[in-house]
From TrEMBL, chain B:
The keyword Nucleus applies. Transmembrane segments: none annotated. This is F-box domain-containing protein. Part of a SCF (SKP1-cullin-F-box) protein ligase complex. May interact with auxin and auxin-responsive proteins. The gene is LOC100822494. GO terms for biological process: auxin-activated signaling pathway; pollen maturation; SCF-dependent proteasomal ubiquitin-dependent protein catabolic process. The lineage of its organism: Eukaryota, Viridiplantae, Streptophyta, Embryophyta, Tracheophyta.
């Protein structure tokens, strides 16, 4: 992937499972940086959950004693504590770099020998991926059970799978979008009756 | 001393190093008070609402340099709502009426208008230095007024201000007769400037020692300027982002070669790695380097450059440098005194390429380190203990672990012991910011050991009121205490109310303080302004056991001789 070029300077991966923290798409998360802890208000489960280090009971205890967290907007703008000038300079820089990057993957529909190509960085989540693919292939598609439940009565003929970096075929929709972007290699639209 | 003529006493006072000492001598007797006040040249006002501007001007009519600070420090992180206050106009107007000999004005975190700048420019005939830091409310038209009318201007230093751009005209407003510039910093100006005007201005400023350009200035202009300024000591580059042609590179290298006095470099806005090798020749003479606006440089680019900077004393860099880059810094920059490592991709907390290992490496290699600001994604007690032992000379230690409340990465314990080691070993510590998972114990350590501490910043830390009480009791020299998102309530607030009179200010936001507690404080201490800032009502529904009283969103307490201020917006209640 083109985006991997950014990672060349690093020689260690983070403690969490992410291996491309400088991935431009990760910066697009409108969610900020709040770790998920079970006892905090849902207001703060903002999108991507990256932290894997909050399993200890001591951290949960401390979390319980912290008073109600600030509102979403305050968290976004007031943490980490850097000056607005630096914040906007880095944000502008990040969006400049993001615009220059693409993530094209091949998309195949079962039964069709000719595939399509799609720049995933132009999309902002699974919903827009679904919409885009439904338009491209002119068929209802779904992915992961959760989303089927959200749209009752719509029994799609196809569902979405992808090949990850290990070569395994997985169902689309189980992992957060940004994590998906770092592992997807190809997308395949499979017929539901096969599953 | 009453036998000495006033001039002699005044002369003796001139040896006093700072305002604090001058304040003390003025208390001795009326004669000394009078002599001191009429001979005071430099006045520092740490909180613009602590005293009325008219009173300052009346007392010190002969002041030449005035510094005023406005909003509390947490305003830098968007915690203070807009329109809170901190207006410069009353100060400039008062000085215009009572102190026309003013030569220098420094303002930080204040709201400055174009009208005020124009008044400033036209009123003070000997005005020569304007330094604005983190201010807002003015445009380039205000700068045009300064440029046009301040005939003796030596310093125009604009640091990180929010300036409305009204075109490049302002720079052309410096008259041809203006040849006195020593320092010009317009790095925060967003728009373009006229390259020709800039070059001509530089050409007629033989005393120019510090020049910081904004990102609109192209490489060729920079080269031309540098050819004219062989005595430049401090440079903020313009645009180095383009993949420019080879001739531009060569011209830039030649120009840098001429600047034998260059000691400090900054700018590097989105700098391309290709430009760096052409800067290597000056690296060996640099004492200051700020690369915090260059997220385009990766670890290897940065380390190649910094490994040449053997005389570096001050380094500001993004975390792209990574731990291995910090190891290079540790082995190359033995004179390092100040290090700041900023987060490059702050939309993602929990990951940054620097960890405790980078900081340990720095502490081993840079024994002179005294000032640190470090953003990282993890820390351990063991590392902090090692760092404290290696670098007992810290005067400023600010550690920000990106994920709030994160424990020791190895042991999952709170970081109390680590920070405890810091305050125990670093006996000269004056400023401290703590982060990560912290219990009341860390505050016990701070209260016990941090005797020289003047400023403490707390975020997402502590278990109970006892934490804050430890600090209020033990830190004898505390001047500024700022707390956010920590479980300190009315009991902590009211435990030691007399202490607030010895401090400049207290800030508490998203804590457990109620309005009742604030009212009690205000009634016990009439010489304090207790400002309750309640923007949002949503938070009030979330608290449970606080006597059913709504919690105060933000609290700002400061000592003052001016009484309640009359410019407060409607969301600020002054008790």
């Amino acid at each position: 992937m083109l985006v991997m070029a950014e990672c060349k300077g690093r020689d260690r991966s983070p403690s969490s499972s992410m291996d491309s923290s400088t991935h431009p798409a990760l910066s697009t998360a409108s969610a900020a940086c709040w770790p998920t802890r079970p006892d905090l208000s849902t207001d703060l489960r903002l999108g991507l959950s990256l932290s894997t280090s909050l399993s200890s009971s001591s951290s949960l205890q401390a979390a319980e004693s912290i008073p109600s967290m600030p509102s979403r907007n305050q968290v976004l703008l007031s943490w980490p504590p850097i000056k607005p000038f630096l914040r906007s300079a880095l944000a502008a820089s990040a969006s400049r770099r993001r615009r220059q990057q693409t993530l094209f993957v091949k998309v195949y529909m079962e039964g069709l020998p000719i595939g399509r190509k799609l720049d995933l960085l132009l999309l902002d989540g699974y919903d827009s991926l679904l919409v885009k693919l439904c338009n491209m292939f002119k068929t209802p598609i779904t992915y992961a059970d959760v989303y089927q439940q959200q749209v009752p009565g719509v029994k799609a003929a196809h569902f979405l799978t992808y090949e990850d970096q290990d070569g395994d075929w997985m169902m689309v929709g189980d992992v957060p979008w940004n994590l998906f972007l770092t592992s997807v290699k190809k997308i395949r639209i499979t017929r539901t009756d096969k599953c | 001393m009453t036998y000495f003529p006033e001039e002699v006493v005044e002369h003796i006072f001139s040896f006093l190093p700072g305002q604090h000492d001058r304040n003390t001598v003025s208390l001795v007797c009326k004669v000394w008070y009078e002599i001191e006040r009429l001979s005071r040249r430099t006045v520092f006002v740490g909180n613009c609402y602590a005293v009325r501007p008219e009173r300052v001007v009346l007392r010190f009519p002969n002041m030449r340099a005035l510094t005023v600070k406005g909003k509390p420090h947490f305003a830098d992180f968007n915690l203070v709502p807009p329109d809170w206050g901190g207006y410069a106009a009353p100060w400039i107007e008062a000085a215009a009426r009572g102190c026309v000999g003013l030569e220098e004005l420094r303002m930080k975190r204040m709201v400055v208008t174009d009208e005020s700048l124009e008044l400033l420019a036209k009123t003070f005939p000997r005005f020569r230095a304007l330094i604005l830091i983190s201010c807002e409310g003015f445009s380039t038209d205000g700068l045009a007024a300064i440029a046009s009318h301040c005939k003796l201007l030596r310093e125009l230093d604009l640091q990180e201000n929010e300036v409305e751009d009204r075109g490049p005209r302002w720079l052309s407003c410096f008259p041809d007769s203006c040849t006195s510039l020593v320092s010009l910093n317009f790095a925060c100006i967003k728009g373009e400037v006229n390259a020709g005007s800039l070059e001509r201005l530089v050409a007629r400023s033989p005393n120019l020692r510090s020049l910081r350009l904004n990102r609109s200035v192209p490489v060729d202009t920079l080269s031309k300027i540098l050819m004219r300024t062989p005595n430049l000591e401090d440079l903020g580059t313009g645009n180095l982002a383009d993949d420019f042609q080879t001739e531009s590179y060569i011209r830039l290298a030649l120009a840098f070669d001429k600047c034998k006095m260059l000691r400090s470099l900054s700018g590097f806005w989105d700098a391309s790695p290709f430009c760096l090798p052409f800067i290597y020749p000056v690296c060996a003479q640099l004492t200051g380097l700020n690369l915090s606006y260059a997220p385009t440089l990766d670890s290897s680019d940065l380390t190649k450059m910094i490994s040449h900077c053997v005389k570096l004393q001050r380094l500001w860099v993004l975390d792209c440098i990574a731990d291995k880059g910090l190891q290079v810094v540790a082995s190359s920059c033995k004179d390092l005194q100040e290090l700041r490592v900023f987060p490059s991709d702050f939309y993602i907390a929990g990951y940054s390429p620097v960890t405790e290992e980078g900081l340990v490496a720095i502490s081993l290699g840079c024994q002179k380190l005294s000032s640190l600001l470090y953003f990282c994604h993890q820390m351990t007690n063991a590392a902090l203990i090692t760092i404290a032992k290696n670098c007992p000379n810290f005067t400023r230690f600010r550690l920000c672990i990106l994920e709030p409340g994160k424990p020791d990465a190895m042991t999952n314990q709170p970081l109390d012991e680590g920070f405890g080691a810091i305050v125990r070993e670093c006996k000269g510590l004056r400023r401290l910011s703590i982060s990560g998972l912290l219990t009341d114990k860390v505050f016990m350590y701070i209260g016990t050991y941090a005797k020289e501490l003047e400023m403490l910043s707390i975020a997402f830390a502590g278990d109970s009121d006892a934490g804050m009480m430890h600090v209020m009791k033990g830190c004898k020299n505390l001047r500024k205490l700022e707390i956010r998102d920590s479980p300190f309530g009315d009991a902590a607030l009211l435990e030691n109310v007399a202490k607030y009179e010895t401090m400049r200010s207290l800030w508490m936001s998203s804590c457990n303080v109620t309005e009742k507690g604030c009212q009690v404080l205000a009634s016990k201490m009439p010489m304090l302004n207790v400002e309750v800032i309640n923007e949002l009502d949503e938070n009030n529904e979330m608290d449970e056991n606080h006597g059913g009283l709504p919690k105060v969103d933000k609290l700002y307490v400061y000592r003052t001789t001016a009484g309640g201020r009359d410019d407060a917006p409607n969301f600020v209640k002054i008790l």
